[in-house]
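During the second half of the funding period, the structural biology subgroup turned its attention to how the target accommodates small molecules. The most pressing case was uracil, which had performed well in the primary screen but for which no bound structure existed. We therefore specified the complex as follows and requested a full 3D prediction, including the ligand pose.
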Amino acid sequence: MNETGNQPERLQKAMARMGIASRRHAENLISRGLVKVNGVIVTQPGIKVTDQDRIEVKGKKIEAEDKEDFIYVLLNKPEGVICSVTDPRKRKTVIDLIRKDIPERIYPVGRLDYDTSGLLLLTNDGDLTYRLTHPGYGVEKTYEVLIKGSISSQSLKLLREGVLLEDGLTAPAKILSVRKHNKGNNLTVVEISIHEGKNRQVRRMFEKVGHPVCGLKRIALGPITLDDRMKSGEYRYLKRSEIISLKKEVGLKSDGREGSWLK
Ligand code: URA
């Protein structure tokens, strides 16, 4: 059980932490009278619970095994925030953005540059972090890249086949889509998936094929995608189904043990 399980916490927060629903969805379930605590329907989201309390959602008891041992948070990282726990230069960190609501120590899974926005996972599950960031597991990361100019089919071919950077040849990338930026400013938006994590890789790949990057946003990590409705700087707990699919992606069973689908 995680560090907060025996501390009283607000019902909707406990439900979100257990991966039952997002906090907003939990509030909605509570206000609709669909949640019981210790057999009593609760319609006030502020009520505090601990792991000793019996919570039922739509008549179904939330079992202890439904509760996660670890915490998994998805942040829509804004630009201008550093992806580490502390910064000697005192710039705002991703931890500063979540600390108010999430007191547990959780860490970013991999890095996004200071000037990159989008999907960032934070967790205290070290095994999953290792597998999601180790190139051997080949987890795809998908980016929406805003570049200068119109990209030629020759440059796209280079990106698909591998670009020679100063630290080696990149593995083949997938180009998912190419479209003109809708503001008529000679910019192009490319959706690209890569499964390596070289430093500033996407920026350097596009620079190398002649298209400096003006904006970079991560929109997916393996099976997890960034929901358009999540505003910059917002975060939420992963749903249980998302945790299971992420673990499955890297050959872990949902209880953290190695599964038969190990790659
Ligand atoms: N590639 C980059 O260039 N920057 C990031 O932040 C992530 C991938």
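Two results from this model are relevant to the next phase. The first strand starts at residue 9 and ends at 10. DSSP finds seven helices and 17 strands in the chain.
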